[in-house]
Design brief:
The chain is of the alpha/beta class and 322 residues long. It has 3 domains: 7-83, no CATH class; 94-104 and 190-317, HAD superfamily/HAD-like (Rossmann fold), CATH 3.40.50; 107-187, Putative phosphatase, domain 2 (DNA polymerase, domain 1), CATH 1.10.150.240. Helices cover 43% and strands 12% of the residues. The protein contains 13 helices and 11 strands. The strands form 3 sheets. The protein has a 7-stranded mixed sheet with strand order 1-11-10-9-6-7-8. A two-stranded antiparallel sheet has the order 2-3. The radius of gyration is 24 Å and the shape is globular. The two termini are 14 Å apart.
């Protein structure tokens, strides 16, 4: 189910200008009616001297209460109904797509690559439990990269060195193993939610770009074999850009090379809260969290949109498309 996490800014802005002004306090945002004086507070006065002519309207999925004057409330309700709570309808001209875990499944190629290479190196069987353990180690290393604690080279080799030591395998081949692993990842392509057709159907309606932290070797092959690369208007890989998501500098470089200059008309779609969503938010770009497993965000980062299936992107980019 598509979820919206913000009031359309254009609706609030217009309502504010037309019907009342905004007053802020720690727990809520309220509108003060035009020409309503702010005088001394009485025990029954609302906070921050706002007009007592205030009613409450609770938007779904909102983290805090939002209060509006009567006219502002009615306007926002009608506005949101007409536009499907979608930031003024066809607001987005550009989509920045994450790849691994968003457009393409990562678990299947990871498992296939690990198991085939274990046999090639004579390490024996790489069981599902071993793959699961490697995935956990790998995830931890990538999180350290996002925090700028390690370099890309350090995480690529270090994850295998740690994993090999844990399962009793010769760790001296970790660097060579990683090189082959990067190449092998592109041998298994599994689309998420028929992503190829989704991206293809959006061509000509929005510009689409890849924004990925994956290695050049692995991602270039996956984009070529999957055919997704041919559908994109550009590809931005962190090794080429020089910075990793969620670093704002990564997005600064992307923005220098894409056609759209208005950040509010760009949508970043990704599955990682710590890489995609945090990065987009820090860069001032609206974000869409692809959350197929229905995980809890736990308030870790601001999310503008949340989807469980990639086909729901149509409701965000162009509500009339079904």
């Amino acid at each position: 189910m598509l979820r919206y996490h913000q009031v359309p800014s254009c609706a609030v802005g217009y309502a504010q200008a037309r019907f009342g002004t905004l007053c802020f306090n720690q727990n809520s945002t309220v509108f003060k009616r035009p020409n309503s004086p702010v005088g001394p507070k009485s025990p029954n006065s609302p906070k921050d001297g706002c007009s007592p002519s205030i009613s409450v309207f609770q938007f779904p999925n909102f983290p805090r209460r939002t209060e509006f004057s009567v006219k502002s409330q009615l306007f926002c309700m009608l506005f949101c109904i007409m536009l499907g709570m979608n930031n003024a309808g066809m607001a987005f001209t550009t989509i920045l797509w994450d790849v691994d875990g968003t457009l393409l499944d990562f678990e299947a190629p990871e498992k296939a690559a690990m198991q085939s290479l274990f046999l090639e190196y004579g390490f024996g069987e790489c069981t599902d439990e071993m793959v699961k353990r490697y995935s956990a180690i790998n995830r931890g290393y990538w999180e350290r990269l996002e925090k700028k604690e390690l370099s890309k080279t350090q995480i690529l080799v270090g994850r295998f060195r740690d994993f090999f030591q844990e399962v009793g395998v010769d760790s001296s081949c970790a660097e060579e193993f990683n090189d082959k692993y990067q190449e092998r990842l592109g041998d298994t392509i599994v689309f998420k939610d028929d992503s190829y057709e989704v991206v293809k159907s959006l061509r000509g309606m929005v510009l689409q770009y890849v924004v990925s932290n994956a290695t050049i070797l692995a991602q270039t092959k996956k984009l070529r074999v999957s055919g997704l690369g041919e559908l994109m208007d550009g590809v931005f890989l962190s090794e080429q850009v020089g910075f990793e998501k969620p670093d704002v500098r990564f997005f600064d470089e992307v923005l220098k090379h894409i056609q759209e200059t208005d950040k509010s008309r760009i949508l970043l779609v990704g599955d990682s809260l710590t890489s995609d969503i945090l990065g987009g938010t820090n860069a001032g770009i609206p974000t869409c969290w692809y959350n197929p497993k229905g995980l809890s965000a736990k308030g870790a980062v601001r999310i503008d949109y949340e989807i469980r299936d990639l086909h729901e992107i149509y409701d965000i980019v162009k509500p009339s498309m079904k």
